[in-house]
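Incident review: delayed structure delivery

Summary: a single-chain prediction request sat in the queue longer than the usual turnaround. Root cause was a stuck worker, restarted by the on-call engineer. No data loss occurred. The affected request and its eventual output are reproduced below so the record is complete for anyone auditing the incident later.

Affected input:
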Amino acid sequence: MKKLKFYAIGFVPGLLLVFFILNKKGASCSGYLPNSRVIAETLSKEFQYSEEFHNEMILNNIDEKFLKDSIITNGKVDFDRSHAQKKPCPDYLITYPEKNPRFEIHFDKCEDHAGFISLKKLK
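Output delivered after worker restart:
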């Protein structure tokens, strides 16, 4: 019991110290989750829109800034309905917002660009 007490006395302050140092530097583990990786990779690519997608953007008053900053950044990738292993360009389905989705975006993520195929307004 005495050893456990000494272990806790050293472990807890060490854990807090590491947490505050990494938090101050802006480090986070959330970028390693599959949803975050797909979104980050998509945002780093050049966007190409299909004619259907572009028409739906106009119809729903969605500009590229709202698409990038809100729908894609805060969206949830539906991996059950996506084809993440498809070669050469995997395709994904993003729903936005995460709870009670209003929009659904279907796109493919190639090596040099992200091709947006369809945009559906759900409600």
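Verification: Residues 2-24 form the longest helix (23 residues).
Action items: add queue-age alerting; document worker restart procedure.
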